[in-house]
Amino acid sequence: MIYNVKGTLTYTDPTFAVIECSGVGFKCFVSMTTLKELPSIGNEVNLYTYMSVREDALDLFGFFEVDELEAFKLLISVSGIGPKAAIAILSVLTPSKLSVAISSGDVRSIQMAQGVGKKTAERVVLELKDKMVGIGTAAVDVQNAQSVASSSDAQEAVEVLVSLGFSQSDAATVVGAMDKSLSVDDMVRKGLRQLSSQL
User: Are 59 and 83 in contact (CB under 8 A)?
Assistant: First the structure.
């Protein structure tokens, strides 16, 4: 229906932004990811949009990047995930990080979204495993995370890093990029260095 809204940013709130176009203010529900990208009030902005039509509501959701809009549409295709839950997930995970989380089976990172329980997060991983490829800029990260499954040492190294407090998707991405001939200890040491430098 409405593919994008381009105009002056007149108001922001933790859950929505108002874009004024030719004297009409469009209220767009946004994720924290999009909110961080918005310019200051009074500047021009373009948001890609999705209109949710229900019996009792007509809501417009706005996204700074097309990748986030595509990720949103995939999320709401999962049974039990409505627009608000999809926005909550995209508030804690960028499209790239969501791709990696899904490909590595990182249910815990998805569960960090407000109102998303373990079963719902597991459903997201199960239903979107093959659909998120190409969303975001993390194609290499996704391949690295998936390559962990081919090595028991890599899997063990990921488990150790997760037990030390790192997310499964971050650990899988870092370990997946390593030479699989390294020992578990070497993978863990190298992974610790890389992950700690990203904090």
Answer: yes
Tell which residue, 134, 132, 139, 194, has the closest CA to residue 161.
194
Neighbours of 27 (CB within 10 A): 15
pLDDT tens digit string along 130-181?
Answer: 787 666 555 555 565 665 656 677 778 878 887 888 877 788 778 777 777 8
Helices and strands of the chain, counted as H and E runs:
10, 5
Helix ranges restricted to H, 52-151: 66-75, 83-92, 95-103, 107-111, 118-128, 139-147
How does pLDDT run across 4-49, given as a tens digit for each residue? 999 999 999 999 999 999 999 999 999 999 999 999 999 999 999 9
Q: How far apart are CA 12 and CA 152, in angstroms?
A: 48
Residue 183, CA distances (Å) to 15, 147, 154, 193 in order: 46, 16, 9, 16
CA 14 to mean position of chain CA atoms = 18
Give 192's contacts (C-beta < 8 A, 6+ positions apart): 161, 164
